[in-house]
Amino acid sequence: MMARLAAILVTILVLGLGLGGGASPARAQLLQQEGDDPVTIEADDGIEWVRDDKLYIARGNAKAVRGTLTVSADTLTAAYRAKDTGGSEVYRLEALGNVVIVSAEDRAVGDRAVYDIDQQVIVLTGEGLSFKSGIDTITARDSLEYWETRQLAVARGEATARREGQRIDADVLTAHFGEGPNGENRIEQVDALGNVVITTPEEVVHGDEGVYDVLREVATLEGDVRVTRGENQLNGERAVVNLKTGVSRMLPGSKAGGRVKGLFTPERENN
């Protein structure tokens, strides 16, 4: 979705805002046809072309729509520059205040979204950061990023990924995307770094870092690993957790003399 957002913002603001100059009346609406999808921009307080600062700005409950994708914010801004070959190009896009990005299957929320076209990265920041796609929800405290050319999404600061009773927490979560059988963009691997915690209905697993194979639903954790199920606990340097079957394996680490330790509490009989 984030890649689609980047493309749509460029199309909307270059084609849509670029149609006029000066301030537009309240509830301004611009329409541009591109292929089969019309591009529409609305803003309660008008749309401006600030020539000296080289900015296009849509203010007041601004909304940009193309097909099934809608970007809503208090303000939408495009910064442009002159090209060596003539003409101009947009190099930075910003959605500010109550940002909500919605497509047919996805929804992203934040206070601010910035798309750096040169770096091909979009960054969401602010309170209540979240990205929901199908059954998956990712939240973060500091930022949500999507690096288009690298096909990476990064959640920073108290990052959490949730799916149907399963949860992964870490300081930083990095999602690697690949192409699905129908050509769709899908998450294939998640790297977790710092204070990693995997929670299922049956157990809680702690570690310093981990890798989650999304397609196989298998997580591998390393570094001071603890697997806790009820009053029982396994301790070691490396664990493999199958979130589909619920089977966890604690393995010796690479350190010399590394061993696996377990604490098992017998079930108490009720008198």
Short key terms for the protein model shown above:
271 residues; mainly beta; lipopolysaccharide transport protein A fold; 1 helix
* CATH topology label of the largest domain: lipopolysaccharide transport protein A fold
Share of β-strand residues? over 45%
Number of strands: 19
Kindly report the average pLDDT value. 78
What is the ordering of alpha helices and beta strands? HEEEEEEEEEEEEEEEEEEE
Organism: Thalassobaculum litoreum DSM 18839
Protein name: Lipopolysaccharide export system protein LptA
InterPro entries: LPS_export_LptA (IPR052037), OstA-like_N (IPR005653)
Pfam families: LptD_N
In words, what does this structure look like?
The structure is a single chain. By secondary structure, the protein is mostly beta strands. It has two domains: 1-127, lipopolysaccharide transport protein A fold; 133-255, lipopolysaccharide transport protein A fold, CATH 2.60.450.10. The protein contains one helix and 19 strands. It has one helix spanning 2-16, and strands at 28-34, 37-43, 47-50, 55-66, 69-82, 88-102, 106-116, 121-125, 129-133, 136-140, 143-147, 152-163, 166-179, 185-199, 204-213, 218-229, 232-242, 248-251, 261-263. A six-stranded antiparallel barrel has the order 7-8-11-12-10-9. A hairpin with a 4-residue loop joins β3 (47-50) and β4 (55-66). The protein is elongated and about 70 Å long. Residues 10-35 have low confidence and may be disordered.
